[in-house]
Write a structure and sequence with these properties.
With 419 residues, the chain is of the alpha+beta class. The chain contains eleven helices and 19 strands. Strands 3, 5, 6, 8, 10, 11 and 13 form a seven-stranded antiparallel β-sheet that branches. Helix 4 crosses helix 11, helix 6 crosses helix 7 and helix 7 packs parallel to helix 8.
């Protein structure tokens, strides 16, 4: 079976720092303190919810049909989009023709916070930002947990991917937005590129259909009346007509589970994204306290999962256990082990998978070892670039093993792929 994956699913893309053996997709430079033996997706309960996902992957690989939409939600680990971008690139290149597009993007630098290194953005006009971690603000937020607003008569946003990373082009852009008691005309700066525009009022989304593939989205806003009010931008989807994997990563520095529960348009925009797999990577900020209450954490996570399932009861969900960390740079955090128990209980209840990165790291106080080996920062909460990259490769390997196990199952309808 391993040889099958080498030949069929890897091709010529096994290059870079993670690929020590160009014939093996699982090849990874190893550290003796990391538990590679537990790097897998656990299923403490029923895994039936993952059958549609694995069948969609079968169809994509064997017939070149369809898209696999993955949505990962988290805090600062995800906003930086280092480990999630490694997972994105490897999922989109482990077999030819799997690049389904860049997916959800947000101009974080316009909101005066850090952009992912693979994404660039600029703006014209005056914009103000709002994030779901700012409890004193009552602004309208969607699934991104962040928005920017302008009241200028003329304004614009430019978003493009960095040439130093995986390149993406697109021929369709969907903008999540909201207008507050005024009217704006949205357009692409080069109007000759646009064939048509579709306004989806149910999801507060405008989709621009382009007549060619481009790599830069240049949105122009023009106020059409003199009424007071503002235009709020909540993110965009850079889309293609190509089959493949789309990996949306959404993260807000400092975000906890209640941060996303405060987003009023979360469900509405989740319905527009329609992910096949949701990866929930929340908990580091919830557990950063000497007074951590696991039952409050359980109730909040339960509410978020039920919110997701209310939109799509058949969506696959993976919950990632937070990494081991330190409190105040001094004390190993005991809360993560309590979060681990809660996560396994919820995964069993809802048929979700678990990626137990806490145990993969080595468990309690393992962050100190990661720090001493250059994989974590001094705060022993965040990782170095090398640490995040290694985490991304580990997550990809766990996903690949899950699919490998699906193919090897005695009753797998995908047995024909082995012939």
């Amino acid at each position: 079976m391993r040889n099958l994956l080498i030949v069929v699913f890897w091709g010529v893309f096994c290059t870079g720092s993670w690929a020590q053996d160009p014939s093996n997709p699982y090849s990874l430079a190893e550290y003796p303190f990391i538990r590679y033996d537990v790097n897998k997706i656990d299923f403490p309960g029923d895994s039936a919810a993952f059958k549609p996902l694995t069948q969609a992957v079968d169809r994509l690989i064997s017939k070149g049909e369809g898209k696999i939409e993955i949505l990962q939600i988290g805090g600062s680990h995800i906003q930086a989009d280092v480990y999630s971008n490694i997972a994105r690139i490897r999922l989109q290149t482990f077999y030819p023709g799997l690049n389904g597009g860049r997916g959800f993007v947000f101009p974080y630098s316009v909101a005066k916070t850090n952009n992912p290194a693979n994404l660039k953005s600029t703006a014209t006009g005056l914009w103000t930002a709002c994030r779901n971690v700012q409890r004193e603000k009552t602004c309208l937020l969607g699934i991104a947990g962040i928005s920017i607003s302008t009241a200028d008569s003329l304004a614009g946003l430019k978003i493009y991917t960095s040439k130093h990373y995986q390149t993406y082009d697109f021929n369709r852009v969907s903008v999540f937005y909201f207008e507050d008691s005024t009217h704006y005309q949205m357009s692409v700066a080069d109007s000759m590129l646009v064939d048509s525009v579709r306004i989806d009022t149910a999801h507060h989304m405008a989709t621009f259909y382009l007549n060619q593939y481009i790599d830069t989205f240049n949105l122009k806003l023009t106020k059409t009346d003199t009424c007071s009010g503002k235009f709020t931008f909540m993110g965009a989807l850079l889309q293609t007509d190509d089959p493949g994997v789309v990996y949306h990563s959404i993260g807000i520095n400092g975000a906890s589970i209640p941060s996303f529960l405060r987003c009023q348009l979360f469900e509405e925009q989740l319905d527009a994204l329609k992910p096949d797999l949701v990866v929930l990577s929340l908990g580091t900020n919830d557990g950063y306290s000497k007074k951590f209450d696991p039952e409050v954490y359980r109730a909040n996570y339960d509410s978020l999962i039920r919110e997701i399932l209310s939109i799509n009861p058949k969506v696959s969900i993976i919950i990632t256990v937070p990494n081991d960390d330190y409190l105040y740079k001094r004390y190993p955090n005991k809360a993560t082990a309590l979060q681990e128990t809660v996560i396994y209980d919820l995964a069993k209840k809802y048929g979700a998978g678990v990626w137990n990165f806490y145990q993969i790291m080595g468990g309690y106080n393992s962050s100190y070892t990661w720090y001493k080996n250059g994989l974590m920062n001094y705060d022993r909460i965040h990782f170095t670039k090398i640490g995040y990259q290694h985490k991304g490769h580990l997550f990809f390997n766990a996903l690949l093993k899950m699919y490998d196990n699906h193919l090897e199952a005695p009753d797998s309808p995908s047995k024909s792929l082995l012939d």
